[in-house]
Amino acid sequence: MNFKAIIIRLYYMLIYSDGKVNQGEISLGRKMIESESISEAEFNAQLDVLKKMDGAVIYKECLADLKRLKPELQIRSIAWMCVLANSDGFMDKAEWQFIYKIYHKELHLPLDDIMEVQKVLSKLTRDNSVFLTSTLPVNRASNF
């Protein structure tokens, strides 16, 4: 599986993790696909497929694919999730738990590296977006 397909799946899982999809998440998703050279047709087609799949299956497959990526792309993937989670002005608890579970418990990625890449991605998408730094939980237990 490739990086682009992985970030689309992560995007899908993140925007539905708190039970509410907002305009900021949709807008930033568009900026993400533009920044990563993903066609809107490819993005929308994959979202349509994901809507028909079981969430647990999406998560399991996505995690397996994430683990096969180089660490730099794993970090970039999580950094995108942080930027997206902050798109509505704050990171919801469910979003925190989702991101924390992946970056800390599953991939064992360094938070400092994620936050550095997040800053770069935030600058790429900042023109019409709210810029916030991440408030990822460092020692929070996940309910997943």
Description:
With about 140 residues, the chain is mostly helical. It has a single domain, classed as Orthogonal Bundle (TerB-like). The chain contains seven helices and no strands. It has helices at about 5-15, 25-35, 40-50, 55-70, 70-85, 95-105, 110-125. The two termini are about 25 Å apart. The relative contact order is 0.17. Residues about 130-144 have low confidence and may be disordered.
Number of helices: 7
CATH homologous superfamily designation: TerB-like
> What oligomeric state do these chains adopt?
single chain
Structural class: mainly alpha
Major sheet characteristics: none
Rounded to the nearest angstrom, the distance between the terminal CA atoms is: 24 Å
Low-confidence stretches: 128-144
Given this structure, which CATH class is correct?
Mainly Alpha
Shape estimate: globular
Give me the count of strands. Answer: 0
CATH architecture: Orthogonal Bundle
CATH topology label: TerB-like
Q: What is the count of structural domains?
A: 1
Estimate percent helicity: 55-70%
* Order of H and E elements: HHHHHHH
Mean pLDDT: 85
User: What gyration radius follows from the Cα positions, in whole Å?
Assistant: 14 Å
Strand content: under 5%
Key phrases:
mainly alpha; 144 residues; TerB-like; globular
In summary, what is this structure?
By secondary structure, this protein is mainly alpha-helical.
SSE diagram, text form:
Elements: H1 3-17, H2 23-35, H3 40-51, H4 55-68, H5 71-85, H6 93-106, H7 111-125
